Amino acid sequence: MHDIRAIRDDPAAFDAGLKRRGLEPASGRLLDLDEKRRAAIGELQRAQERRNAASKEIGAAMARKDFAAAEALKGEVAKLKAQTPELEAAERAALKALDDELAAIPNLPNADVPDGKDEHDNIELSRHGEPPQFPNSYRPREHFDLGEALGLMDFEAASKMSGARFVVLKGALAAMERALMQFMLDLHTREHGYEEVAPPLLVRDQAMFGTAQLPKFREDQFPAGDGFWLIPTAEVPLTNLARESIIDEAKLPLRFTAGTACFRAEAGAAGRDTRGMIRQHQFQKVELVSITTPEQSANEHVRMTRCAEEVLKRLGLHFRTVALCTGDMGFASKKTYDIEVWMPGQGRFREISSCSVCGDFQARRMGARCKASDAKQTRYVHTLNGSGVAVGRALVAVMENFQNSDGSIAVPEVLRGYMGGLERIERRG
Predict the structure, then answer these.
(1) CB atoms < 10 A from the CB of 26, how many?
(2) How far is CA 135 from each of CA 139, 216, 405, rounded to the nearest angstrom?
(3) Per residue in 275-305, pLDDT tens?
(4) What are the backbone angles phi and psi of residue 425, rounded to the nearest 5°?
């Protein structure tokens, strides 16, 4: 959510930020709505002030036995009292009109975010490792071919139960998915300083609004009835831990992690990645969330990205890190680094983590503030979120990068302790 006062102070800068995102100017429309809101507030305040003053004047008129004046004042008070609900309704309507417009506008990009229209304009920052080498006679297979050949990945059974974009994992692949999540959580809690949280998977409207999934991306979410939504990412409950609170700045940054199931309708993904596990309605993900002061957030963004990169380094995967351009950033982000892992079966890099700094954009929507011990005023916290990493995509990456020409899959050394010492996944029977 944007600060209307900041827009009022510098509308040109606000419109310039929107232009970088490929959007039309909006300051004029917002300031008109703000003027109507301020006028409605002023009219209500004037009516309340006059009503209070007239009530006092009644007593004075009665004291001097000016009964005619007292009666006239009583009539004025009654009229003002009758007008109050209408004026209050007008004030609420004007505020809602402004808030609805503000809620639909994305965050503005940082000055150092590269300009661009889409993923083709993203800037590669670094690469780690090398792609695996396979025999010349062997063409790497995609994960779904490998998984189905092993008899451990069943899309047909999942489709019969739930439809498209679901999978049933069995045996060693199910165990590897579980091992990946456990490994990530252990790494982030034991070495990276995150506190593990087991959050609800169902949240209400206000939680989804706070992290900006609602109202704009309603069609991408799964409603669960009775005002609940299935979480699209643990970012929602983890970030909302700071909701409607004032945090002692001495305790910041707060760092949370959670491994959860996530649910996305993928309404805008028709025809994309229809086979396999890359884009599913239900998937596992380890999420990282930080709550910081404004001064800490830039360094925290780099730190969070390094934590996510470390997961892939320990797994022995080839990856690159890119800075997203203005046209490819998420709605709530001011700046985003994507980590893309190499997929040999597909012959390209695929996103496995996005780490974003949101500034105070989400905090304003949630009412999340902080206060220094020697400060008189509170201020909004900054929020950051990132995948640490997507478990399903990590499974896909391990399968494709560690595949053998006989169709088996080597288990990365870092996962073997989580899988009873298993070193190779082979077809059963």
Answers:
(1) 18
(2) 8, 48, 8
(3) 899 999 999 999 999 999 999 999 999 999 9
(4) -100, 120
CATH value of 119-425 in 2.60.40.2550, 3.10.180.10, 3.40.50.300, 3.30.930.10: 3.30.930.10
Topology of domain 4-103, CATH: Helix Hairpins (1.10.287)
E strands of 88-137, at which residues? 123-128
Q: Of 265, 309, 299, 295, whose CA–CA distance to 283 is shortest?
A: 265
Longest CA–CA separation in the chain, Å: 110
Report the SS3 class of residue 186: helix
Low-confidence ranges of the chain (pLDDT < 70): 267-271, 429
User: Which tokens is 182 given?
Assistant: 């456990």
pLDDT value at residue 267? 61
Phi-psi region of 98 (alpha: psi -120 to 50; beta: other; left: phi over 0): alpha
Q: Starting at the earlier edge strand, list the strands of the sheet with 245-248.
A: 245-248, 368-371, 379-380
- Residues 315/394, Cβ–Cβ less than 8 Å: yes
Q: What is the pLDDT of residue 274?
A: 73
| pTM of the full structure | 0.93
Tell me which residue of 354, 309, 305 sits closest to 329, measured CA to CA: 354
Helix and strand numbers (H, E) in the chain are 13, 18
Helix boundaries (H) for 198-333: 205-210, 235-239, 297-315
